[in-house]
Amino acid sequence: MTEAYTVLARKYRPRRFADLVGQPHVVNALRNAIVTNRVAQAFLFTGPRGTGKTTSARLLASALNCARRGDDAEPCGECESCKDVARGEDLDVIEMDAASNSRVDDIRQRLESVDTRPARGRYRVFIIDEVHMLSTSAFNALLKTLEEPPAHVKFILATTNPEKIPETVLSRCQRYDVRRVTTAEMVARLGEICAAEKLHVAPEVLRAICEISEGGLRDALGRLDQLVAFAGDRPTLEHAEKVFGLISRPRLVELLNALARGDAAFGLRFAEEVFDSGKDVAEVLGSLVSLTRLLMLLAASGGEAKGLDLPADEVPQMHKVAERFGLHGLVYIAEILSDCRQRVRRAAFPRVMVEAALIKLTLVGQLEPVGVLMDRLSEMTDTDSLSGVTGQGDSSKSDAGAQQASQNVGGRQESAKPATRSENSDVSQGSKRTPTESEKAALETLKRKFGAR
Ligand SMILES: Nc1ncnc2c1ncn2[C@@H]1O[C@H](COP(=O)(O)OP(=O)(O)O)[C@@H](O)[C@H]1O
Ligand SMILES: [Mg+2]
Ligand SMILES: [Zn+2]
To answer: Which of 157, 217, 223 to mutate to test the pocket of ligand 1 (most atoms within 8 A of CB)?
Structure first.
C-alpha cells in the first residue's frame, strides 16, 4: 500500500513561533506574555482565512504546556506534549470546531471537564475554532465559564468573522489580528518548502501562485500542491498559467509595452489567446486594471517601488512602461479597462469589445498631451511670441484653450501641461523647425475643434 499523501499545508504547519510567517506583532506579544508570565485567560485570533489563526492557537497551546520550553518561549516541538498537540491528540488541549459543533449541548459537553486538573501540562487549553459559528445559547454557555475560569484553564478562540461575536465575549478576550501575508513573505516560505520537498520551482512561478492567493498562505500551498500534481517537480510559468487560468504579470507588462509602442497586432493576438484558452476574460481584465494601478503608483512616485509589494527585478521594466504612458495616459487606460471589464460579461460580442479596448490603448501610447499640441498651435499661429514658449509649462497663453481641450477630449481629463517626455524637447527649446505633415493634420483638427487662437 502506498503511503497517503499529506498536503503541504498540513505537513508544514509551523511548530515554532519562528516559522509563523508575517505575524511578528502576534509572535512578539505572545512570547512576551509567556516569558513575563502574564498570560491572559482568554485569547482571540482574528483575520482572513489561511493566514495562521489556528496555527497561532496551537502554537500558543504548545508553548503553554511544553516541558522544555526555550527562554524565548519557543515550544521545543519534541516533548510528548508538543508532539501530541501537533497531532491534535493532547489530553490537555481540547480543540473544538464550532462550525460543526455550534449547539449549546456541544459546548456544554466540552466544558464539562473545565474543573479537571491538567493531566500532564500546566494548563487545560480550550481551543474553539471558527467561534463565530456558535449559537446564541452556546455563546451564553461559553460566557459563563469565560467569566470565571479556573486558574488552570486557558481559552483560545479563533475566527474569520469577529463582528459576529457578542461584545460580552469579545471584552473578555485579549485580541490579536492576524494579517494577510505579503507576497514576498509567501514566496520566501514556499521557496523553503520547495527546497525541503526537492521541488524545482522558479521564483516567478511561486510569485504567480502567491499573488493570486491574496495573502492566504494555505491557499498558496494548496495551489503549489495542485501545480505539482499537474506538472511534476519542475513546473513552469506556462503550467501555472494553464492550471490556474492566470496570466503572469511579466506577460501582462509585455502586452502593455507592446500596446505602448502602438503594436495593435500584439493586442489582437493576446485577445485571441485569452478567448481561445477559455480564460475568464473579466478576470484577465481585472489583472490588467490592478497592473495599471501599480503603474500609476510607480509613475506618481517616479519609479519608487517602496511599499508596493513588487519584486525588485520587475520594477525597471514596469517603470519604463509607466513612463511611456505617463500618469494621465494611465488614468485613461484604467478607465478604458475597468469599463470594459464591467461590461464584458454581459456583452453580446465580448471579443470585439476586448479587441477594441486593447486597440484604444495603443492610441493612448501615441497621444501627445493636449497642452503640448496647444503650445504647438500657438507656435504656429502666433509666430511672434515663439520665444515665450517654454517647455516648463509656461502655457499661460494657451491655458484657456487647453482647459477647454481637457474637457473635450473624449470627455477625459487630459494633461494641460506639456509632458516631460524627451520627444517634446524641441518644444522646450523653442526651436523653429517646420511641423511634420501629421503634426499639421493634428493641429488642423485641433483648430477645427477648439478654434484657432
Ligand atoms: N502565517 C503563517 N505562517 C506559516 N504557515 C502558515 C501561515 N498561515 C497559514 N499557514 C499554512 O497554512 C495552513 C493553514 O493555516 P491555519 O493557521 O489553519 O489558517 P487559518 O488562519 O485559516 O486558521 C498551515 O498549516 C500552514 O501550513
Ligand atoms: Mg483555522
Ligand atoms: Zn515541547
So the answer is: 217
Assess if residue 306 is contained within a domain: yes
What's 356's domain CATH number? 1.20.272.10
Confirm whether 424 is domain-assigned: no
Q: Which of 195, 217, 244 is the last residue before a domain boundary?
A: 244
Residues 186-199 have pLDDT tens digits of: 999 999 999 999 99
CA torsion sign for 238, 244, 249, 251 is: positive
Residues 49 and 158 occupy one common structural domain = yes
C-alpha cell at 44: 482571540
Average pLDDT over residues 27-36: 96
Examine the domain organization and report whether 97 and 159 are in the same domain: yes
Indicate if 80 and 141 belong to the same structural domain: yes
pTM over 0.85: no
Q: How far apart are CA 271 and CA 335, in angstroms?
A: 18
- Ligand 3 centroid vs 84 CA: distance in angstroms? 10
**For residue 54, how far is its CA from the centre of ligand 1 (angstroms)?**
7
Q: Is 373 a residue whose pLDDT tops 80? A: no
Q: Which residue has the cell 523553503?
A: 192
Confidence of residue 31 (pLDDT cuts 50, 70, 90): very high
Containing structural domain, residue 117 = 8-177
- pLDDT tens digits for 409-423? 443 444 444 444 444
